[in-house]
Amino acid sequence: MDPRALLTAIAQDAVALFIIVDPVLVLPLFAALLKGMSRPERSRTINLGVLVAALILILFATIGRPVMSLFGVGLPEFMAAGGVMLFLIGLDEIFGLLGHLGTYQENIGIVPLACPLLAGPRAIVTTMLIVQRNPFPTNYLILSCAIVLALGATWVIFYYTEPLMRILGTRGSLILGKLMGILVAAIGTHFILQGLADFWANCIPR
C-alpha cells in the first residue's frame, strides 16, 4: 500500500471509529458520572477510561473472534451483557441502589466509560473489520493509528467536561445526573433488546 493510500485509509477509519464512539453524545452522561470528583480524580478517570478502551479495542481486533468462539460467545451476547451493566448503572443514578459508592466511582473509568460506552459492540465490530479488510501487517498499523486518533480526540473532549460542570452548578449537575440515569437505563434496555434480537436472528436457520 502506497503512503497516500495508507494515510487515506487511516483517516477514513479514524473518522468512522470516532463517529461510532460518539464522545459528544456520551459527554453529558460522563459529566453526570463525574460529579463530586476532584480535578485530579477526573483526570485519572479520563486517562484510565480512554486507555482501557484502546486496549479493549486492540485486544478484540486481534484475538476477539477466536476467544469468543472458544467460549461460544457472540457479539449479541456481548451487547446484551453491556446493556445489563448500563441498565443497572442508570438505576443507580436515579435511585442510588448500588452500595460501595467510593469503589464504584474509582471504577467509572473502566465501567461504564471504557466498556461499554467507548469500546462498545459497534466499536469492537469496526476494529475487527479494519483488521479483516486490510492486508497484514498494514492492517495493524491502520488500526493502531485509527484508535489513537479517534480516542485522542475523545480524550480532548472529555478533558473539557469541567467547564460544563461549572456552568451547570450543583443543582444542575444533580438534575442532569437523574436525566442521564433515565437515558442510560434506556440505552441499556436498547442494548439488551438489540442483543436478544440479533441472537434470535442468528438462531433462525437460513
Polypeptide structure, described:
With 206 residues, the protein is mainly α. The chain has helices at 3-21, 23-33, 39-70, 75-95, 101-106, 109-118, 121-133, 138-159, 161-203. The chain has 9 helices and no strands. Helix 4 (75-95) packs across helix 9 (161-203) and helix 7 runs antiparallel to helix 8 (138-159). The longest helix has 43 residues, at 161-203. The mean pLDDT is 81.
Sum up the overall morphology in one term: globular
Major β-sheet, in short? Answer: none
Tally of contiguous helical segments = 9
Q: What is the C-alpha radius of gyration, as a whole number of Å?
A: 18 Å
The run of helices and strands is HHHHHHHHH
Beta fraction of the residues?
under 5%
Helix content: over 70%
Uncertain stretches = none
Average pLDDT over all residues: 81
The assigned structural class equals: mainly alpha
Which key phrases capture this entry?
206 residues; mainly alpha; 9 helices; globular
Write the layout of secondary structure elements.
Elements: H1 3-21, H2 23-33, H3 39-70, H4 75-95, H5 101-106, H6 109-118, H7 121-133, H8 138-159, H9 161-203
Helix pairs in contact: 1-7, 1-8, 2-9, 3-6, 3-7, 3-8, 4-6, 4-9, 7-8
What is the structure about, briefly put?
The chain is built from nine helices and no strands.
